[in-house]
TrEMBL record:
InterPro entries (alphabetical): Thioredoxin-like_sf, Thioredoxin_domain, Thioredoxin_H-type-like
Domain Thioredoxin residue range list: 1-116
Pfam families reported in the protein's UniProt record: Thioredoxin
UniProt protein name: Thioredoxin domain-containing protein
Matches recorded under SUPFAM superfamilies: Thioredoxin-like
Extent of the signal sequence: none
Length: 123
């Protein structure tokens, strides 16, 4: 028990979707959602994981989900994901934007525009 109390356990804010049922549950929550469709064999996709975690910490009012296309094939099919990584921005269960490819600057830009549009629609 020699801990000095300074070890911080970073709890991930990115939620892994394990099934189609959990997907349906998460996207029906009414909050904005950003989804990273990934595959363990796709290096550009895997390389985006730390960036996606960072985004999740930055944008606290958005739900960040990750979907492994090999584990939850039905969701990838339903959302017409054909390449990895694919990022979906969703509002009220519907796709608001889609970005294919590992482009951190563009993803950040799209999320900022997404948030702006959500806040604008509330006023």
């Amino acid at each position: 028990m020699g801990g000095n109390g300074h070890e911080q356990v970073m709890k991930s804010r990115v939620v892994k979707v394990e099934s189609e049922e959990s997907w349906d549950f998460f996207i029906s929550q009414g909050c904005p959602v950003v989804v990273h469709f990934t595959a363990s064999w796709c290096m550009p996709s895997v390389a985006m994981n730390p960036f996606f975690e960072e985004l999740a910490l930055t944008y606290q009012d958005i739900l960040f989900l990750t979907v492994d296309v090999d584990e939850v094939k039905g969701v990838a099919r339903k959302m017409e994901v054909k390449a990895m990584p694919t990022f979906l921005l969703m509002k009220e269960g519907a796709q608001a934007d889609k970005l294919v490819g590992a482009n951190p600057d563009e993803i950040r830009k799209r999320i900022n525009a997404f948030i702006y549009s959500i806040r604008a629609s509330k006023t």
